[in-house]
């Protein structure tokens, strides 16, 4: 019994019995126990165990198990011929057959039930502790047998052990297995051996699925089904699943050697983020090393997955900054995680040093974002970046995008983007003492943008005029100061 666990309530144990026939015999055992008829309680408990096993053999036979059908035929033959000898032999061997042929119980559980069988023999036949004292079992022993019968056998469906694992795995790889967790629970697992699974079965299913998903190259459809199954099992048994992963993942991780298997691990962490904390230090170091120094091609292939893992997102963003323009553009073209790529893309775009570079960078690092839901802050950053670099705001294709996309997008954020547009507007005027003067030779897109800014913000001219006058005055003062120093 785990530390701190309470004694099982006998009425609760009765409710856990799966078979109504077994429940009836166990109820009789509980009644005898409570009345002090301990020998009768042990006998009834043994009868409940035997009839529960017989019921499980019948269920397996109906499901097409040939070995179980042989047992059922044997029982019917004994009944019709009233073969007492065969019946006694069947009772004597039933535990071994349940373990060896059907894996309904383990070797240790067989030993526990063998003790119940021996105690039943002591109770059903005249037995003596000594020449003067008849055999009388202790109440604690009786309670132990009742509890063990339910916890070990009576509450479970007929398929357990290797056969149960095989049944579950065969269902998962079938083409009809759902790809939605809730459907997998309702349509399969709640009507499978996992419905009332032994801890060993839960552990085996989680461990086997985890090994397949981490170490093997699976077809995509099979991978999806196995992830659905794993998530469904973890949802059915969250506490047990967490403990199992804590034990099993550190054992599996050393076998992750190839980059393909590492990609499987990252996908596993994305789908089940909590497993990062059960991975262990060596596994975490392996992931960190891949992110820091893995080949660019492989890192680029996995970055969309890594960015979905909260604990790795910051490190993934740092790796984005080290990628080539081509690799960053490749990630942006995929259309996911654009918010994470935007800061680095904007940084590179606004550092353009020539018109030819502006043509390339605008196509790679500006245009893809204009078809997404940009925030007011992002649009403001784009406008200011362009305003601060003449290689951008004097570039024909960039100005065309500003006319057709950036300016219309900013209409939803009139107040938030006003200052950015005022600074943009300012780049196309000469500082003069009394009035604004547009630069000569502006292209049509620039002229259109300036006119449109004036219509949207009627006070832009006095604002820029005031700034230009201040700028002109400061420049004039600097020139005068320099002349006085020369004299």
The Cα radius of gyration reads 38 Å
How large is the count of helical segments? 25
Count the domains. Answer: 3
Mean pLDDT, rounded to whole units?
88
Instruction: List low-pLDDT spans.
Output: 1-5
Q: Helix proportion of residues, in percent?
A: over 70%
Helices and strands, in order, run as HHHHHHHHHHHHHHHHHHHHHHHEEHH
Q: Report the β-strand fraction as a percent range.
A: under 5%
First-last Cα distance:
100 Å
What order do the strands of the largest sheet run in, or round the barrel if closed?
Answer: 1-2
Structural class: mainly alpha
Which sheet architecture does the biggest sheet show?
2 strands, antiparallel
Q: Give the strand tally.
A: 2
Query: What global shape is seen?
Result: rod-shaped
Task: Tell me about this structure.
By secondary structure, the protein is an all-alpha fold. It folds into three domains: 10-157; 159-255, no CATH class; 369-487. The protein is built from 25 helices and two strands. A hairpin with a 6-residue loop joins strand 1 (429-430) and strand 2. It is rod-shaped and about 130 Å long. The model is unreliable at 1-5 (pLDDT under 50).
Concise synopsis of the structure shown:
With 487 residues, this protein is an all-alpha fold. The chain folds into three domains: 148 residues; 97 residues, no CATH class; 119 residues. It contains 25 helices and two strands.
């Amino acid at each position: 019994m785990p530390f701190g666990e309470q004694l099982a309530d006998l009425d609760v144990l009765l409710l856990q019995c799966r078979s109504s026939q077994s429940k009836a015999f166990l109820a009789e055992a509980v009644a005898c126990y409570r009345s002090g008829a301990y020998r009768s309680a042990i006998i009834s408990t043994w009868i409940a165990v035997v009839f529960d096993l017989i019921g499980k053999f019948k269920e397996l036979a109906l499901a097409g198990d040939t070995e179980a059908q042989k047992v059922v035929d044997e029982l019917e033959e004994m009944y019709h011929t009233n073969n007492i000898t065969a019946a006694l032999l069947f009772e004597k061997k039933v535990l071994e057959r349940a373990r060896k042929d059907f894996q309904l119980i383990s070797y240790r559980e067989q030993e526990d039930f063998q003790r119940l069988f021996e105690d039943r023999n002591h109770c059903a036949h005249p037995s003596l502790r000594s020449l003067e004292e008849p055999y009388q079992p202790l109440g604690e022993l009786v309670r132990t047998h009742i509890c063990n019968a339910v916890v070990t056998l009576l509450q479970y469906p007929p398929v357990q052990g290797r056969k149960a694992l095989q049944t579950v795995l065969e269902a998962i790889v079938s083409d009809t297995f759902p790809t939605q967790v809730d459907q997998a629970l309702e349509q399969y697992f709640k009507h499978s051996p996992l419905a009332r699974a032994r801890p060993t079965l839960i552990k085996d299913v989680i461990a086997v699925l985890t090994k397949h998903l981490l170490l093997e190259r699976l077809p995509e459809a099979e991978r999806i089904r196995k992830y659905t199954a794993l998530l469904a099992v973890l949802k059915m048994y969250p506490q047990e699943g967490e403990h199992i992963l804590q034990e099993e993942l550190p054992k599996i991780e050393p076998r992750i050697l190839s980059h393909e298997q590492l990609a499987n691990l990252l996908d596993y962490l994305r789908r089940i983020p909590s497993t990062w904390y059960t991975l262990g230090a060596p596994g975490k170091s392996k992931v960190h090393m891949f992110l820091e120094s893995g080949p660019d091609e492989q890192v680029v292939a996995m970055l969309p997955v890594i960015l979905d893992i909260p604990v790795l997102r910051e490190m993934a963003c740092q790796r984005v900054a080290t990628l080539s323009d081509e690799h960053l553009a490749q990630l942006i073209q995929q259309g996911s995680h654009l918010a994470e790529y935007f800061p680095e893309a904007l940084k590179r775009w606004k550092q353009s040093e020539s018109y030819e570079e502006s043509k390339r960078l605008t196509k790679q690092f500006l245009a893809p974002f204009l078809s997404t839901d940009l925030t007011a802050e992002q649009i403001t950053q784009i406008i200011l970046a362009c305003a601060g670099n003449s290689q951008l705001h004097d570039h024909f294709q960039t100005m065309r995008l500003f006319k057709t996309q950036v300016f219309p997008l900013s209409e939803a954020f009139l107040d938030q983007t006003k200052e950015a547009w005022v600074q943009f507007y300012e780049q196309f005027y000469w500082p003069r003492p009394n009035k604004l003067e547009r630069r000569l030779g502006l292209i049509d897109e620039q002229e259109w943008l300036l006119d449109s800014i004036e219509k949207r913000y009627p006070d832009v001219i006095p604002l820029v005029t005031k700034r230009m006058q201040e700028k002109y005055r400061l420049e004039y003062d600097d020139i005068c100061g320099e002349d006085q120093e020369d004299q």
